[in-house]
Sequence to fold (635 residues):
Amino acid sequence: MIATVLTVIGTGVGVLQPLLVMRVIDTAQAGGIPLWLVGALLGLFVGQAIIDTIGHYLLERAGQGILLSLRRRLIGHLLALRVQIFDTRRIGDLISRANTDTTVVREAVAYSFTSVITNLIGVVGAIALMVWLNVWLFLLVLAVVAVAGVIVLSALSRIRAVSEQGQASVGGMTADLERALVAIRTVRANRAELRETERIGDHAAGAYQAGLRMAKLDSVIAPAMQLAVQGSVLVVLLAGGVLVARGSVSLGSLVAFLLYATYLVMPLSALIESAATIQRGLGALSRVNAVFALPREDDDSVPPAERAGGGERLAAAAASTPTPTPTPTPTSTVTVTGDGDRSAAIELRDVRFAYTATPVLRGVSFQVPRRGHIALVGASGAGKSTVLELVERFYDPDEGLILFAGRDVRSFSRSSARTWVNLVEQNTPVLHGTLRDNIVYAMPDAGEDEIAQVVATAGLRDLVDRLPDGLHTPVGDHGVLLSGGERQRVAIARALLPCPAVLLLDEPTSQLDAVNERALTLAMRRIAAERALLVIAHRISTVRAADRIVVLDEGRVIAEGTHDELMATSAFYRGLATAPPTRPRAATQERPARDEHPPAGPFGPPPGGGDGPVGPLSPSGRRRAGRAGRRAAVG
Fold:
């Protein structure tokens, strides 16, 4: 506000200067120049310079403040979006909107709108004084400006669309560059540098083409405004010179009018430039608003004091409050009344869910006790990781209920529910920073004793002792300086630190060697004695260690029991347990597009045995290929 006021004052001071110039010239022709008049003119020049300097700084500061506020709001919104948004949106494009687009919006809001106000004042003041000095000269200048204005307006109408195209190309380029840099080792290993360069270059070429179209429009606007300036000066000099020669106008009035003609055209040029900048800003703003239109998770955040031990508070609330009776959705076939089983940490009741049209879970029901190790097994695509994502409330079930300590999970905010559970994904990320930064991510104020305990539990003690700066050693971007097994154990330590009531593990031993797997298995036993463990397991050794096993097939629970019980009663489980070993797939979500049946061997190799995946070059792979070939020959 102050910046705008100062800029307006500076504009007003500038409008007064030609009048003083006229007075000085006319007084000089009469035989003398009063010193006070010269002093006043110099004072106006100096005053305007000071005011403009202060106003420019304040405008710059206001612009940076607007940019900061917009970016903070946008970043907060991005981090609060529903998880499914990130299944389809490109991360690099979202980053571009928070970075490049917000800068363009700042230019439009902070500078252009203020410029419109101040330059309008300058234009109105110049017009009024030009009409007062000589209306006929003003009409001549107006005719020249009108011709230039028609040309400019024809170009302005196209700037916004071109700006949107350019910003979209920059967003695509950022997204593809982020994709390539994150997977730089894969790019190098597959000799794909040239292909990625061409792919990213295509987006850069799109931005280049949009830039050329913008340059064409600018090349129309700039000469048109130059025409207005030069044409106005020329018309005023010619017509005004004739009037001065005839004695109709004084020389001082002509000089003042000439200055006002410049003051008229220059603010008009600035207005046109502001209009062009605003059009560019509107193009960028539409991309920013598209992000704000994306749905957020409908919850508050948990205060820092509630992050640790939130499970105990949730359990206390569950013990004192009955389970609400859910209102079935129009398509729901399940109605549950009364209290849930409060002895269970988690209970799923006839849970159904689909990412798109094809169901992934088809009526899943089972319980996870307050303590103990529950293993979730099944073929790829059976719905195992989807169960964990529903429990973590990344998604909500389409039908059925998920209960925490006997209460419908929907009676808690998502953030509060996540104090009850903590998820370790199979390919869980390690963040840029130190080892300690990653471990205390959920509890930045954790004590050293707490950190030491989870470091020991996750089997990271040897790593910490080996690193040059211990816990304060940087781990690199995405944990690149750690091995796969070390990253997995860091993630487990991070999940253990807040002491959740239920720990969700998606194949925690997938990247551990035999020695570390045995150590982690012992740690899991200690954890299971104090809290609940729900573990997606592929290795038979991990499955054997479970207190209870839940078998999923095509989105349904088909068997439950211990390993020995299931080996005796479930042919499907026996097939999984005795099939040749394969490595688990890397993805953590089962998508409905996959039409997968139980493959041979979802369990990975046990410690010390079972080399590599089954493939066309492995013995079992060659046997299958041979049988397929024989069948084809017979057919």
Summary: Residues 300-311, 320-340, 584-635 have pLDDT under 50 and may be disordered. The radius of gyration is 36 Å.
